[in-house]
Amino acid sequence: MATTHAAALTRTFRPAYELDLRLTLGQLQRGHSDPTYRVAADGAVWRSARTPDGPCSLRITARRDTGEVTGEAWGPGAAWQLDRLPALLGADDDPAAFPSHHHPQIHDAFRSRRGLRMPRTGLVLAALIPSILEQKVTTIEARKAFRLLVLWYGEPAPGPAPDGLRVIPDAATWSRIPTWDWHRAGVDHKRSRTIMEALRVAPALERTAPLANAEASRLLKCVPGIGVWTTAETMQRSHGDPDALSVGDLHLAKQVCYALTGTPGDDARMLDLLEPYRGHRHRAALLLRMTGPRTPRRAPRFAPRDYSRI
């Protein structure tokens, strides 16, 4: 039986800057199995969102000849999402202030990725929960947990969205997930407890979206279990913060130091090397992750743990 959908709301935006759509929005994707993000065969980027007005689906396409970007949105949150389409595409970002000249590796990476912008979703909880799931575990574990929980407790994305595209649960639904389903998804008690702490103050967290980056970051770190790394991973997406450096990451410091000096280093060394880029340290680190040489592996990979049996 054929399915009918409400007409899409549409907005066309012509950035006054060079934009690489896939590179910019790809920062919001939580791995290739992310059920909230999809790249269609025609190159359109689909993503779902849980906005203050309700769920929505967003389809974004770009024209190379004119530079125009068109957003089509469905669902109760469609208007809210389209109002923020420019911010989502990095209109609030200012890479012109990036001092790329301090190191040739970063300078070359910046030139080759001129279309990279920092996306600002304006949705704090949606960025925070996956970041908490990524605390102190392998990427494979975290992305599997996020995928399973969204599949179990999310809802189908509205409109003619691709099969399998889903909207993350709302705060009330996250708070009702039972202990055994956290364990089935591979989430230990410490991370699920931190998510519950965040859910208790979810409205206050969402009110940090329009705040200055420094103040929003300070308030996020007031939640028990949320430290520097989780705050940075959240701020990169919710606020498009180009300085939100993920200090404490298992691999980042080694990669940054190796790319800039040829020798792996720790967080302190990374902070020292990136000090000339203050205000844009996340941008510098991201460019190095995209283009820099990889640190040679000298240790076995961490094996994923099975929390469902704990």
UniProtKB/TrEMBL annotation:
PANTHER family in alphabetical order: DNA GLYCOSYLASE, DNA-3-METHYLADENINE GLYCOSYLASE
DNA repair found in the keyword field: yes
Keyword tRNA processing: no
Protein name: 3-methyladenine DNA glycosylase
Alphabetic keyword roster: DNA damage, DNA repair
Naturally occurring in which organism (per UniProt): Yinghuangia aomiensis
Coiled coil: none
Annotated TM spans: none
SUPFAM superfamilies: DNA-glycosylase (SSF48150)
